[in-house]
Amino acid sequence: MSSAKGRTTIEVGADGVAIITIINPPVNSLSLDVLNSLKESYDQALRRDDVKAIVITGAQGKFSGGFDISAFGKIQGGNVAAPKPGFVSMEILCDTVAAARKPSVAAIDGLALGGGLEVAMGCHARISTPNAQLGLPELQLGIIPGFGGTQALPRLVGIAKALEMMLTSKPVRGQEAVSLGLVDAIASSNELLNTARRWALDILEGKRPWINSFYKTDKLEPLGEAREILKFARAQTRKRAPNLMHPLVCIDVIEEGIISGPRAGLWKEAEAFQGLLHSDTCKSLVHIFFAQRGTTKVPGVSDLGLKPRRINKVAILGGGLMGSGIATVLILSNYPVILKEVNDKFLQAGIDRVKANLKSRVKKGNMSQEKYEKTFSLLKGALDYESFRDVDMVIEAVIENVSLKQQIFSDLEKFCPPHCILASNTSTIDLNLIGEKTKSQDRIIGAHFFSPAHVMPLLEIVRTQKTSPQVIVDLLDVGKKIKKTPVVVGNCTGFAVNRMFFPYTQAALLLVEHGTDIYQIDRAITKFGMPMGPFRLCDLVGFGVAIATGSQFVLNFPERTFKSMLIPLMQEDKRAGETTRRGFYAYDEKRKANPDPEIKKYVEKAREVSGVTIDPKLTKLSDKDIVEMIFFPVVNEACRVLDEGIAVKAADLDISAVMGMGFPPYRGGIMFWADSLGSKYICSRLEEWSNLYGGFFKPCSYLAQRAAKGAPLSLSEDPVKARL
């Protein structure tokens, strides 16, 4: 995304082959400058008599990562004029490159994604290195391929494979691309250009076929079969992504080209692309794309020029679900790990859990047996601190018990080297409390993984007033190496994610006690796009955890918690969630959740205890009302988290909601979604409910002030405040 202009260069060799090179570091993205320059270089090559054939390639071992995504925001905001519809797909690729009387070959190394692959498909042949990645991931950004990909890809690999590549956004490697017909031959990086040059001259001399991708038909399935494939793809897409339009638009555009020919298909593609570019889904997904890359920018930390130190060895305390999950993540990224437990039985159980995590990867075909053995050998067990004398980082993952954690941190201070990072995976306990009995507060930090740790993509890095910037930089680097998205937050009860979402379950409990149906709430929330509703989530994490975390919030934020006895009453009856096969749902042997009619009696009992009466209005809420009554309190708490400087910026909360809680990315994250509804609307609804149902819904001052001005919630007015 560099501000220097991207460009292309042209060099003509003695053999009469012009090499056109795309230059726009780091991934040679196709900015508007690059596209204009590509057209000029191409026109020049076609005009020149000393040019017989053309090879297109990318600088620095990368063909092109696709259209420059930062241009989307500029086009959506109206700061930059969009290229006229069909400029790239029709004018440059179909009518200039593919239709030229001089053959062109794409020489692909590194990656050809999105627009990059579309440029390559405009050429008459493609040569790739065996490990180059080729794909059309545009749907991840809420749009469709817009440079002719919807028309060229089905004609090269067939409709079924093209649909799979576009709808899943998954790239293929060069080696596989040859067998699919997407690439014509494989060459090593050193031989790539020479092979491509020779291939281009061979086409010219009639030794190789001269193929225009847009008019190739031998790979297209017969019309009847094609219609069946498209029908099936539509049905699958509606089932998998009921809230998304753009995958269906993509299927329509592919179909148009098959029925009415490539030109009609290209026009429909251009039209659809323009429309989708301005859709809420595209704006949301582009926001998430940049927000995810922006989490490592932390004022006062990442701008000090500090280099991350090398972490050679990590120790983990506690081999339970979290500890073993964290150990799995670390050894998968080649960190040697010591797992410490209190006795043999627990230690063996922890090691077995790690083993099972790795074994499931082998079973799914994501890991070879040899890689499994090598990875597993990085894990060592321990029952004491002897082997901690040379560790660079410790992550404590024992149960949420303050005095136990305090004891552990005093011990760690004695046994670990003075540079060692002392991290805790606590999800709710104040870090100052944990490190209270030590003199090492500058190296104490929270490394909060989400369960299951080897699956969930978020890592909350929690700093206190005393945590040194160096330690934060080190942990950001570890986060990146273990392929997590790290978000730096301040220290408070629940940090960012759990604190933001504590009103989520509470709002649901409040509604139920006032007469809303449990299962209707879960259905409305899943329909909105969450992986599961609040009650199904309670069952999954277990009532023990739900009560432990809930009580932390009741203790710390008494004025805005809704105290319900529903979960404790169920727990008294040995219902504790999915593990006991009974919680808010009843579970069969396959762990399938079914509504349980017995729940009614617990709800009635809880109502008696809290003295709440049924409100007829709340027994017949629409799905929209349910979503708002459950998520607006979350927005309200997110505003507090931002206002207190716990989060550095609103976009970090968006990423936290998406990656920590499964908030739908196509809605842009919690704050982005809130701003699409407007602070005024949210505040007025919360005030209305606050008058009817109490302080739980009362808008915080930050939200009220923004609403009074009609200002968005996301913009931070005072950058100094966002420091900590």
TrEMBL record:
A Pfam family: 3HCDH
Main subcellular location of this protein, as a coarse class: other
Subcellular location: Peroxisome
Coiled-coil portions: none
InterPro entries per UniProt: 3-OHacyl-CoA_DH_CS, 3-OHacyl-CoA_DH_NAD-bd, 3HC_DH_C, 6-PGluconate_DH-like_C_sf, ClpP/crotonase-like_dom_sf, Enoyl-CoA_hyd/isom_CS, Enoyl-CoA_hydra/iso, NAD(P)-bd_dom_sf
Pathway annotation: Lipid metabolism; fatty acid beta-oxidation
Protein known as: Peroxisomal fatty acid beta-oxidation multifunctional protein MFP2
Species assigned in the record: Forsythia ovata
